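Our preliminary data section would be incomplete without showing what the modeling component actually yields. Below, a chain of 303 amino acids is followed by its predicted structure, encoded as tokens that our downstream tools consume directly.
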Amino acid sequence: QAQKEAKNKGSGKTGSAVLGGRSAVSLLSNVDLSTWPKREVLDKDGSINQVVVIGERHHGTNYMQTSLEKNLKVKVMNEFCAFKHKYQAPHYPGCKGLDLSHVLVVVMLRNPYDWAASMHGYCWCGTPEDKPRFQKKTVRDFMTEEDFPENSGRPWLGEPLDKRIATCGNLMTCRALKYANFINISSWAPHVEYVRYEDVMSTDQMQAWVDDVAGRFRIPAKRDGLFKAVTTYKGWGKDSVNVTAKQLASTWFNPARLEADGKEARSERRRAQLVMQTYDEQMERLVGYGPLPNAEALVRDVE
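Predicted structure:
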């Protein structure tokens, strides 16, 4: 049924991308988890002594990790079963011998429109030679590249973690596969939190989220009543991040910017259209994203 729904999902310019005849969401039901070694959850009280932050590239993982390190008395890592940007599987080296009952996995998510722009601006992908090659591509060529490289083996195909370069289709197909893999973590790890970057961008939002998680998982605070905010890029350097300016420049927060005249607006409209043409709509809706409002009008002149 899931595969049938995935095939029928979407139409027109915002249709669902399918992967071998099925959505990435339906891929979850085709992963045979019984073949992967699991550890029994020994500690029933769920006390946490380690937090790992993972997510796709350009997803705010450094921002989240630094916020947790500054405010909570707990070990914070950027590697789970594998490095934070890679596919995760319980038989990978990082999870061998790890008692998952004491580990909180924080998975960062981000809207597809701003993420696609960030990846085009600086593509953490493939070999060092691939980065400038992808940056020089036009928006259309970048978004429709069908041999997009992924620096991680695909566990559902039996590929080893250390497989250097595997192609996964176009950019949005690769995103759907990575999201499916990350969502699948909740089927074998007991403590998983999925966080949209857009929901923790401001200091107030991040503080509310950290306080909530600390309370639910009984993680002690490092501070004495004062939240230590991360206000610079990745928590590094001295230049403060202007959240309001970032939101105004965001296609997700400010889709009206696509209605402007000029070369830059036309380029962003073209990107928005290509995102909606090539993404997995079922997956995007599952994590709280999907088509932009008034999508047809916003992409009126991009062909």
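The chain has twelve helices and six strands. The radius of gyration is 20 Å. Preliminary results of this kind motivate Aim 1 of the renewal.
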